[in-house]
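This section describes the prediction task in plain terms. A model, or a person checking by hand, is given the sequence of a single protein chain and must write out its three-dimensional structure as a string of tokens. No templates, partner chains or ligands are provided. The sample shown here is typical of the held-out split.
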Amino acid sequence: MAGFSGTNLTGDPVPAISEAEATGDIAALYTNIRSTLGVPVVNLIWRHLAVFPGGLDWAWTALKPLYANGAIVAQAFALRAGLDVPALPGLSGPALAAAGLTAGDLARIHMIQSSYERSNAMNMIALGALLARLDGISEPPGSATETASEEEPVAGEMPLLLTLDAMDADVRALIQDLNRIGGRDEILASMYRHLAHWPPYLALVHVLIAPIAADGRLEPIITGGITEGRQRAARVANGLAQPTTALPDTAQSDIRAALSQFINEPIGKMIAIVPLIQRALPSPSKS
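The expected answer:
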């Protein structure tokens, strides 16, 4: 599969079936994905897999046992807990208020970021397990069993996922600048499009995270998270189910390429960036 460009102005940066467009079996799978991951959004990789005939069903069927036994949730929690994320100067309540952000705005922003922080780590483990199977890789489960957290599902309604052409030119340029932080910018991270409803907030985020990319602190967090995530995923790959319907060779090759690209680029990058931002934001009750 050829790499996709993140510069598509009118829709997703890769071919995908949107949540609004999904019908029938795809819509049912999307509902199951949201419920299982405990988030109010179907991430781009799942919407991209839906483009391949039978691709999303193949992936989700294979992963069901690992969600049912808690392996994905536990490994994702351990991955997040092990990230060495530096503490950045916090965004104060008065600064956010001066930027025109209300308590309601901050509550929605917090919800969006919580959703991506939770789902990115789970997707790293799930997709990494699928990729490990396709590559014939597995690792011993390890001597200790990871314990899943008791996190509550992320509740709320995601705002419209804005397309680049629906944004003012300066906001579009800001989104693209943000996506270049940490490199790996071929696929535009969807979180920035969800947050594009609050341009002043994104401007503050840019000021917050650009320096740690420039001084070299961000890259080791990204590469470390990708390496750790793929290792943890390989440990649970033997627990994948074997779907009754095999993928055609061409679809398998394309799906393998998509999994690899998402793991090593937008998901791997945002696993590091989202907690940096989230920890700098006051909790809704303190804003």
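For orientation: Residues 1-6 have pLDDT under 50 and may be disordered.
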